[in-house]
């Protein structure tokens, strides 16, 4: 569960599908508008229901959109809509306690919820054999949960939500910025005056009566939209909806809120010293217009024009010329009642934010002088055309789009109108909204600076007031439990509301994979898929970070960044424009063991996109100016990462596992020390590692094998010899049975990593270990999550797994727990791992099989998932039908096989522990675990 902002996909389209446009070009047939087919009806209780058929995969998505968000809360009860979302998953009259979080993953499904200013959404995706079960469990959550609420459940969920706030806000750099902006942009009493997650004292004060009042007021059927999308029969589904949802009470009429745009009489400038931030950040927020307002479309494009390309005036001034920041972003954010236009700059270390503010002004003046380039406008619309299809490429995304547009605009198919309105935006419209809303407007400006660096804040800014939680050391003061189940009289029903059986087991077949070879040694793997006229592709080149020269970690990362900065015949801005005009995206990046050239485009533009890929590979520009800018950007990013406790924990964990002499022991981007010495000549020397021999091209989408091979043959001119791959040795004496503590003073949470080096993905036992981990930490149904979050309320989430790599990868357990629960959480993890084998029986074997086998029905739905499947085949030399073989391997595993995996790879005594948290309150507590303790700094070096 999370608090989110659902927004309509930025859409623009020539209002035809790719195939229809090609058909028109060839035959003159007039194309039709893009749309999502659906059927809508309303139950007697007022619930609006939308059905969408999609038989491409044997899965069903269900989304229930409640028209209530934080904008319906009362002052003093902030965060309640989000808190109620959490409560909704706990229990209901006809479903076993905790079933929603546990059973759905065990059926092979996924589920979650989200709350934002204006609404709350609950959603699931399941194999179609679980369709009846999801109707049962989802309708019971919706209509039959309120009688089951207990004081114990209330108190436990308070702790979970508190942990979510600590993780996302209190323990995160710049986490309080949204609160500062809302308090000052929206007047007291305005529904957007507070954050979605609210204040901890408000959450702590919540009572059962508050929960019931909120439910009774807002959780009626007439205040919601239900969307079911996927492999369904419409007539049959109508009957099921009537049975499961038709008896839910209508609820009182909820008076619609009218738009409440705000104006500012003056500009407000505020500063805040952030304990975690390492870089100064400036934000300027201007009040604008609400969602669906006619001017939102021009404002959205304006945001892109101001900062979204290398030719954009703000990018030119702040990044290129004055070198104040690696990036600047401007964007329109609209909600149901009001909207905001946001300027955001996270500046380089030590940068005075006054200079950033002056640079923004200069950039805006330049925009006024230059106006709107029609070529830029065309580029943005081409990019948004591709986004249109990407935004509705899965059944869940379609469900979200239909539900959002229906509930908040009364028209499930408004996507078509959005496309038209965005396509119709002119340069005159953009200048009009700029002059109306942005030019000379008052705004709220925040200067968030690192602790002790107030001199970087904008001059004459006022101090922002923020409530900050005081950490309690006594875990017992906030101890919670499941408690007793509520006693109540069941709501009568004319239907049997007990758990229905599974339907017919869906026939799952992995996508058909083809393979071919180019003359230059590049192997092509592909999956043809015609659901949307898109292509996703990836060229994987072995080596990556592991090819970095000794002492210069970060060379590969900087190299792949620089390769995207123009070609011999195109400046960086011209290359960016050429890609954008195709509506494509192309990126190049470095991973631990390989480099990637990845992207997506409309299928009709794949040929031209690959021509640009070829140009990028064979004609590097070696732009010295861009090299200096990128190097500065990486240094800024590395400095920024020092403010993130979760990133610190992961980096320290990796260094402890792999040591100082292995590439995996250093971040892919390098460190501030290693990056400092990198020169452009290092990158030129590294270019020889970019070879097609041993590399693989992966393509998924709306082209046949012959079409892909024909287009890909353009890469045959790429003929660099294959480089020798480096060899690394793992530490001879691994670190075990020790707690390594990194001090982050004042941390509201402790970040935990527990684990050891396990095995390579090429190891014949890799699958078996992954299967054996599923019960321990595979998602919300895993024991770690169920115990640390559901039973104890110590954390927002807890998981375990094995990192996939050719090198021996680590097994890990990871969680962020509230500070005063650090020791208790470590003790639970220690005990759970120690006794895992003895507590793993025949039931766990069956649950693992069901969960993973059925999960495959939705595992390869998206083009990105199909691409990942191809990458697994090529990188780890898996057979084309490895999915089927893996399933057979899973079915064949005996209980003894599971025990062997656990005893071989998951011995607690072989594991090390990393704790990143507040030393003052937790060092002595963690000592009680009884293990040796070593203090490290944030870089993993021992503190004397």
From TrEMBL:
Residues 408-678 form the Peptidase M16C associated domain. Residues 488-499 have a biased composition (Basic and acidic residues). Residues 477-499 are annotated as: Disordered. SUPFAM superfamilies: LuxS/MPP-like metallohydrolase (SSF63411). GO terms for biological process: proteolysis. Keywords: Hydrolase, Metalloprotease, Protease, Zinc. One of its GO terms (molecular function) is metallopeptidase activity. InterPro entries: Metalloenz_LuxS/M16 (IPR011249), Pept_M16_N (IPR011765), Peptidase_M16 (IPR050626), Peptidase_M16_C (IPR007863), Peptidase_M16C_assoc (IPR013578). Belongs to the peptidase M16 family. This is Peptidase M16. The lineage of its organism: Bacteria, Pseudomonadati, Bacteroidota, Flavobacteriia, Flavobacteriales.
